[in-house]
Amino acid sequence: WYDNRLFFWDVEERRMMNLSIELPGGDYVQSVAISPDGKLVVFSDGTEILFYDISTGFLINSLKGHQLFWF
C-alpha cells in the first residue's frame, strides 16, 4: 500500500503518531534516516535528498542533483 505519505510510529506505545509527511512526486522512498536527537527525518527518492522537521512535518532543506546509480 502506497499513498505518498511517510508515517511515524511510537514503538514503545505501539501506535501510529499523529504525524505524517506528504511526499513530493510519485517516487518511492528508497532510504530513510532519523537524526540521533530525533528532530529530523531525511529521505531520498533516488534523485533528491529531503530534510524534514519531525515535530512540524515541514520541509527544511533539499539537495537536488544526485543521481541514482546501481552497483
- Backbone shape: globular
Count of DSSP E strands? Answer: 6
Please outline the major beta sheet.
4 strands, antiparallel
What is the gyration radius calculated from CA atoms?
13 Å
Q: Work out the strand percent.
A: over 45%
Descriptive overview:
This protein has 71 residues and is mainly beta. It contains no helices and six strands.
What does this entry show, briefly?
The protein is an all-beta fold. The chain is built from no helices and 6 strands.
Secondary structure topology:
Blueprint: E1 5-10, E2 15-22, E3 31-34, E4 40-44, E5 48-53, E6 59-64
Antiparallel strand pairs: 1-2, 3-4, 4-5, 5-6
Keywords:
mainly beta, globular, 71 residues
